[in-house]
Each structure stands twice: as structure tokens, then as C-alpha cells.
Amino acid sequence: MLWKALYLSKYILRRILIAFPLILGVTTVVFVMLRVALPGDPAKVMAGDRATPELIEQIRHNLGLDRPLFEQYLIFLRNFVQGDLGRSVKFREPVVRVIVKAFPFTAALTFLCVTIGTSLGLVIGVVTAVYQRTWIDNFGIVVAVLFYSIPTFWLGLMLILIFSVGLRILPVQGVGTWKHFVLPVATLGVGQSALIARLTRSSMIEVLSTDYVRTARAKGLAQRRVLIRHALQNTLIPVITVVGLSVGGLLGGAVITESIFHLPGVGSLAIDAISNRDYPMIQGAVILVAASFVFVNLLVDIIYAFVDPRIRYE
Amino acid sequence: MSQLQGAEHPTGLYELAILKFVRNRVAVVGLLCLALIVLAVLFADIVTPYDPIERNTPERNLGPSLAHPFGTDKLGRDIMSRVLYGGRVSLQVGFLSIALTTLVSVPLGLIGGFVGGLVDDFIMRVMDLILAFPGLILAIWLVSLLGSNMTNVIFAIAFFSLPTYARLIRGVTLSIREMEYVMAARSMGAGAPRIMFFHVLPGVLGPLIVLTTLGVSGAIVTGASLSFLGLGVSPPTPEWGAMLADGRNYMRTQWWIAVFPGITITLVVLILNIIGDALRDALDPNVRA
């Protein structure tokens, strides 16, 4: 028992140690891109077309652009470690403070979609696998591939058209009540459930044809018990990994969903920042979203180790 | 020689795959529909009599009719013409970005998997780094820095897709590297480039075809998403995502502006996904014809 726990903690520790250089890498990439990829002088671009030379000089100084590149990088890293991602040009406030206000909306939206979408997908996947090659399965496959193919932005518009414009039962945009969250979560969650349903189905079919499931059935166990105790646990293993990776897609989808439903999340903030050329803001949003993605996958890998005992011996 | 080989192996993996694919009726119908859509998009100027950009004020805001099957927008432009011409942008973004990714990732994955060691470590760590960013977020960031135009959209999509492809190709290469026929080739004095190109690459092709088919559908959606957010081609050039962004403002009164471009994207993506699934089944030796 003890050595098992030891193995596990060693694995978790190693996994955490991998996450740090990854986040460092992410910030480095973001830093380099802003300095290298942006055509022309970032200060000039940020200041806009009608800026006075003094303003440009001030921005340049604020961003530390008047120093050598490597020094800029070190300052940027030091500030990042201290939780300082610069000041937003538009809000005239620290970027982190603005993002912290918006983050709960994005986190809630993503979390609801992961949990609801994944649960729904699991149920559909298991049911279609159990009723393989029946009309239930065929229907499930068709619905899943259709929902998997509908682009988020169009689904959002169509849901508004049906439920807000047509039936008038749900609000079009904004926040306030739980009703405001129904359409955004549906918009983003449908694709998630379709993805998980497809994966669960194929994983479950594979597990159901294994010898140990046949043995379990042969010794007279009830169907429900075979499915839950023997099949589902092993079906979950590939599903968990994909759930972690899908969070990346959901975070991207959240940008679109927030933009459609005017939710004040990080995505709306980023899109707003782009049209305002508020580069510190965009940079902060990108770093934060990427860091959360790295963190979620770290979490998933740890859960993974608990579900799949084989992982510890690697 | 090749004829003789064909006679000796009538059930090679790829021949069998084609056979299995052709028997999948849904996929074949999908492929035909896709061909039809691509042709209509390519020959848009013959298929539709209307100009996709020029204003036609007397005919503005018309609902779907025989003359305008998808209706017209606020400037009197025929939506169907705009969907067809817009397809040129969207399909180009989809196919070109994935072509670019494939072109770069094949050598990266082959070399990483085949050479191994530090080279492999380096390539894979860079790929991990790109993977740490959610794809669409990275694309938004890149396009916002480089500027909104089709070339940058294609580049951005190709860039964030790279790790998925490189990882797949590397994984397959690793397993093929240990196969006996590769060892046989090596023992006969074949060099690394020759083995990679003639012995490993054909084995990589199967999974790669599946991934690229699904990749094109994903890239079309991402391209349209970027345009929807105002980061793709600039107006008045028609593009599916940009048309939807325009249509969202008129949903209460002119629903058709947002509905038809959306149906078109969904249809194309759906067909590509169905074809991708069918190819996966066809190329899987465990699935019987």
C-alpha cells in the first residue's frame, strides 16, 4: 500500500515538474511573438494612428521597449512570476485585475460544458454501444456526427433564433439569471457531448468484446453489474484523456460563445482587446487561458493515475 | 514487376481499404455531394448569374424565392452567390492550411521517430509547447498580431495543427521502425532517407489520410470562426463565417442571411467527417469489409 502511494506521488510530482517549464515556455512564446511577429513598432501600433510622439514614447517606456530585448524578457518574466502582466491600454488598470473579474464567467461556462456535456456523452455512448447495430445505435451515431459537425458559432445563432426570437422562452444575451446560461452552455456543450459519445461508444464496444467481460457474463452476472463494474471503468480510460484535451477546444469555443451571447468573460475581453489593439490585454488573456489549459491537463493526468493503476509503473 | 506483385497480393491494405470504402454507401454519397459542392464553388460564376459583391438596391432583403433560393441581404446581394463565392475562401483555407501542416509535419515526424535521441526530444518538446495553447486561442493571437487576411489565417491554422500531425506520424514511425521489413531493408544496405521514404512513409499514409480528412473539416470551421470574430478576410469579400457574423444582426427580420451560410458549412463539415470516419473504418484491418 505504502509503496503504491509512493509510486503515485512520484508520478504526480514528476507530472507537476513538467508543467512548470511548459508554462515558462508558453510565456516565452507569447513574449517572443509580440516582439517579433508584430509588424513595425509595437508602441506605435498600440498607440493607434492618431497618437502623438510623446504618447508613443510613453508606451514604449511603459513596456520597457527602450531596453535591450533580453533585458525586456527578464523583466517580463520577473513581472509574470509576481503576477504582473502589464497594464491594459484601454482600461488603464493592471491586466491581471481586469482578467480576474472576467475569468469566473469563462471558467463557469467551460466547467458546465465539460461536466454536463461529458455526462451526456457518456450516457449516449454507453447506450449506443450496448444496443450496437440496432436502430437506437444508428440514430445515436447520426445525431452524434451531426452535432459534432455543427460549428459553435452557427449553433449559437440558431439556438437564439429558435428559443429567443421564435419561442421567446430564453433571453438572447447578457447575464443575470440562470436562464442566461442555458443557451451558451447548450451551444458549447452539444459538441462536447457528441465528441464524448463517439469516443465512449467505440471504447465501450472494444471493452465489451474482451475476454474478461465475456467471463463476467459467463459466470452469470447481471447485465447492469457487468456494464458498470467491468466495462465502464475501462471504457473511461481513453475518455478521461480526451476530456482533458477537449478543454482546449472548449476554451476556444468559449471565446465564440461569449462573443455571441455577450458574456463578459475572458474571450469577450480578448476579442475586445484585439479591436482596441490592447496588446498587453490580449497577451494576458492568451497566457492565462494557456496556463489554465496546462493546469487542467495536469489535473487530468493525476486523475488518470488514480483510475488506471498501470500508469504508476511506467 | 508491379503487375506480378499485384497478382501475388490481391488484398493489400490500400486495395482492401478502397474496396471497403466503396461499399460504405453513406460515405460514397457524401463524397459525390462534396464533389458537387466543390464544383459549384469552383464554377460559381457559371452556376449563379449574380455578382457576390455588387449592390443591387431594388432587390434588397428578399426572402428565399426561385430567383434567389437563399434570399438577398441588405445590399440586395444574392446570398447563394455569396455562399458559393465564399466557399472559395473557406475551402482554400481548409485545404491549404492542412496541406501546409502535412508538408511540414511529415518530415518532422519521420525524422523524430526514425532518428530518435536529442533530435526527437527537441522536435517533440517544441510540439508540446504549441499544444499547450488551445488551438483557436493561438490562431486568434497569431492573426491579431500578423494581421487579418487569408494568408495569415492559413498560416495560423497550419501552425497550431502541426503538433497533432507530427505526433501521429512520429508514433507510427516508431512502431514501423521496429518491423522486420525495415530491418531487412537496412540489412540490405538501405540508408535512412531511403527507408523513411519507401518503407516508413507508405505505412504512415493510412492514418495520415484519415487525420487530414478530419483536419480539413476542422480547419474550415476554425477559418470561419476567425472570420466570424472579425479576424479573417475583410468585407465585402464573401466568406462563410463573415456572412454569419453579418447575419446575426438581422436574425429577427432576415433569418435567411444567417441560416443558409451556416447550413452550407455544417453540410461540408458533416460530409468531411463522414468520409473521415469511413476512411478510418476502411483502413482499419480489424474492421471487416
| Number of helical stretches of at least 4 residues of chain B | 12
C-alpha Rg of chain B (nearest Å): 23 Å
Low-pLDDT ranges of chain B: 1-7
Structure summary, number of beta strands of chain B: 0
Q: Please bin the fraction of helical residues of chain B.
A: over 70%
Percentage of β-strand residues of chain A? under 5%
Average of pLDDT of chain A: 85
Describe the structure.
The complex is a heterodimer of chains A (314) and B (289). Chain A has 314 residues and is mostly helical. In chain A, α1 packs across α4 (69-81), α10 (223-261) packs parallel to α11 and α10 (223-261) packs antiparallel against α12 (279-307). Chain A is built from 12 helices and no strands. In chain A, 78% of the residues lie in helices and 0% in strands. Chain B has 289 residues and is an all-alpha fold. Chain B is 74% helix and 0% strand. Chain B contains 12 helices and no strands. Chain B has helices spanning 2-8, 13-23, 25-42, 44-47, 79-115, 117-131, 135-146, 150-177, 180-187, 192-228, 240-247, 256-283. In chain B, α2 crosses α12 (256-283) and α3 (25-42) crosses α12. The longest helix of chain B is centred in the middle third of the chain and has 37 residues, at 79-115. At the A-B interface, α1, α6, α7, α10 and α11 of A face α7, α10, α11 and α12 of B.
